[in-house]
């Protein structure tokens, strides 16, 4: 007797039960059979998409969820699931739009707000991410996850104290939430509370030793904070690194690279750096041709003789001090030294000029000479307004947004009495320090490929040579990182005097002054001096041929 084919209802019910039992792979088989029996039911496509998401098959999940939405375009849950799939496929802008559309249809979904918050974090839209996570907290006040996400968003927005409170609130609701423990530890290190910070980082590893993300913050604090047992655990986890999610693999590669370097195993260290950098480079967007073309166009625009006519039209304030140069050049050391002075506040990498210049550039390009002079003054006044809250009563405010080197002439003409401090370090040491550092989010995307890094460095050197001829030496001081480390007091006195300030002995004990250290890197722990970094690249010289070739053109 011929066997009758199973009905759609029976196949669908079997698939649902199998998925509920955790037998996801089997459930996918039954969902596909159900679709062959009747492909016009949106719910089965939605469930199939969810099962594929569970297995990390994001391309297949996207296809199934789009089919579900073609049958039911206003299904909020399918929109949210598709947003998650698209986010995993590294299309955050599209993911954010899908999640926001889902929330218009179903505003009570805390999980969708959480996913939206994470996508906005990836886009570095921190205020919007704060709002999304805050909405999730309101909907599920006893849940730890949205409070942890809110903490990350607050920290990204520069609200470190509020971030710490949010991480603590997450842990109060779930003391075993390892992610919040790690985030709290990193935030505490940022404000200089090293003892408690490392305790929470250790707690995170104890709670979840197989999470590759948790080791890098500990390693970044230096060898004194890493026990032999931690290193052994890292190495064991490294043996199974291919089984970890991509973000954890990246972090663990960078952590293992540092520990192998401490142990003198340079070949192993470099292999991990290459692997971690390749994964990170594949995960971010960087258009090298566009970036280098922008640098050339900026150099041409500010090198135009018309800039000479801008002298004297800017705001006369002498409050700003701009530290400029390449990342990992020693700029943080200079900022910390200056910020220890009682008349100085260190604002960190605030990026205000990076935001202002693109906004006003079309106006500048189309202006007459008289209009341009007026616009130049407005830029200076706007910068001062936007930093008033940071400066308080300080005589000097230090802005360490390193990309300001691209617009040094504009800084000079808009704020002619500001000081510019250009920190320069040995080319190979600068570039290798960049390559061996995992930066926050999508910051500094040119640092994960040796050749791209070398070409960017060459463009920076060419640009700074031109600016040194434009900005007078009483307004632009070049400091050698190596000289600063070897002759710290002499160079520190020179920098303080250049800033028009009386000498203060506190500048020699900058590492003891409690203050935040915010850089683009994952972690920056204050140390008295960084002599161990001098000549570091020489240990890896045999592996750096693509970098040296690119630097020298």
What would you say this structure looks like, in words?
This protein has a 5-stranded parallel β-sheet, sandwiched between helices. The protein has 553 residues and is mostly helical. The protein contains 26 helices and 5 strands.
Content-based structural category:
mainly alpha
Task: Tell me the Rg in angstroms.
Answer: 27 Å
Number of extended strands = 5
| Arrangement of strands in the largest sheet | 2-3-1-4-5
The CA-CA distance between the termini, in Å, is: 79 Å
Question: Which whole number gives the mean pLDDT?
Answer: 90
Q: Remind me, CATH topology of the domain at 288-552?
A: Rossmann fold
- Sheet with the most strands, sense and barrel status: 5 strands, parallel
Low-pLDDT stretches: 521-529
Shape: globular
| Proportion of strand residues | under 5%
Summarize the structure.
This protein is mostly helical and 553 residues long.
Note the topology.
Blueprint: H1 8-20, H2 24-37, H3 42-54, H4 58-71, H5 76-88, H6 92-105, H7 110-122, H8 126-139, H9 144-156, H10 160-173, H11 178-190, H12 194-207, H13 215-220, H14 228-239, H15 246-262, H16 266-283, H17 288-302, E1 320-325, H18 331-339, E2 344-348, H19 352-365, H20 369-391, E3 396-399, H21 408-414, E4 419-424, H22 427-435, H23 450-470, E5 476-480, H24 481-486, H25 488-498, H26 545-552
Parallel strand pairs: 1-3, 1-4, 2-3, 4-5
Helix pairs in contact: 1-2, 2-3, 3-4, 3-5, 4-5, 5-6, 6-7, 7-8, 7-9, 8-9, 9-10, 9-11, 10-11, 11-12, 14-15, 15-16, 17-23, 19-20, 20-21, 22-23, 23-26
């Amino acid at each position: 007797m011929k066997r009758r084919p199973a009905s759609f209802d029976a196949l669908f019910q079997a698939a649902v039960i199998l998925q509920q039992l955790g037998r996801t792979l089997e459930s996918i088989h039954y969902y596909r059979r159900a679709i062959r029996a009747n492909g016009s039911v949106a719910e089965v496509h939605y469930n199939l998409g969810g099962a594929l998401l569970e297995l990390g098959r994001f391309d297949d999940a996207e296809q199934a969820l789009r089919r579900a939405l073609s049958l039911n375009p206003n299904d909020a849950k399918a929109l949210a699931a598709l947003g998650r799939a698209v986010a995993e496929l590294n299309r955050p802008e599209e993911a954010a739009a899908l999640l926001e559309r889902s929330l218009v249809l179903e505003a009570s979904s805390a999980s969708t707000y959480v996913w939206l918050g994470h996508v906005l974090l990836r886009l570095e839209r921190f205020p919007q991410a704060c709002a999304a996570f805050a909405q999730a907290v309101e909907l599920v006040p006893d849940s730890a996850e949205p409070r942890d996400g809110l903490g990350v968003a607050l920290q990204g927005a520069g609200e470190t104290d509020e971030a710490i409170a949010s991480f603590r609130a997450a842990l109060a609701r779930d003391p075993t939430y390892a992610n919040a423990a790690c985030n709290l530890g990193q935030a505490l290190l940022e404000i200089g509370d090293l003892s408690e910070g490392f305790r929470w980082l250790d707690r995170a590893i104890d709670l979840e030793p197989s999470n590759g993300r948790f080791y890098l913050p500990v390693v970044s604090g230096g060898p004194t904070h890493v026990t032999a047992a931690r290193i052994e655990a890292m190495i064991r986890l490294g043996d199974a690194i291919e089984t970890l999610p991509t973000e954890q693999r990246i972090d663990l590669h960078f952590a293992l690279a540092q520990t192998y370097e401490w142990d003198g195993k340079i070949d192993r260290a470099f292999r991990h750096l290459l692997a971690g950098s390749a994964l990170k480079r594949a995960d971010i967007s960087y258009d090298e041709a566009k970036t280098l073309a922008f640098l050339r166009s900026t150099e041409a625009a500010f090198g135009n003789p018309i800039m000479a006519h801008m002298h004297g039209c800017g705001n006369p304030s002498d409050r700003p001090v701009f530290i400029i140069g390449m990342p990992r050049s020693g700029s943080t050391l200079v900022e910390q030294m200056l910020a220890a002075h009682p008349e100085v506040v260190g604002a960190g990498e605030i990026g205000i000029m990076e935001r202002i210049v693109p906004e006003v550039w079309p106006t500048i390009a189309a202006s007459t000479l008289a209009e341009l002079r007026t616009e130049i003054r407005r830029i200076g006044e706007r910068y001062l307004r936007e930093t008033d809250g940071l400066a308080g009563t300080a005589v000097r405010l230090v802005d360490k947004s390193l990309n300001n080197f691209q617009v040094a002439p504009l800084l000079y003409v808009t704020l002619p009495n500001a000081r510019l401090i250009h920190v320069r370090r040995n080319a190979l040491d600068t570039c290798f320090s960049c390559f061996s550092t995992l930066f926050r989010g999508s910051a500094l995307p040119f640092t994960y490929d040796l050749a791209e890094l070398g070409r960017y460095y060459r463009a920076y050197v060419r640009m700074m040579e031109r600016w040194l001829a434009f900005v007078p030496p009483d307004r632009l001081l070049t400091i050698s990182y190596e000289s600063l480390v070897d002759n710290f007091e002499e160079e520190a006195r020179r920098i303080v005097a250049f800033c028009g300030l009386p000498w203060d002995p506190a500048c020699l004990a900058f590492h003891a002054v409690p203050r935040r250290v915010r850089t683009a890197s994952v972690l920056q722990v204050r140390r008295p001096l960084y002599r161990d970094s001098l000549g570091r690249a020489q240990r890896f010289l045999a592996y750096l041929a693509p970098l040296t070739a690119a630097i020298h053109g």
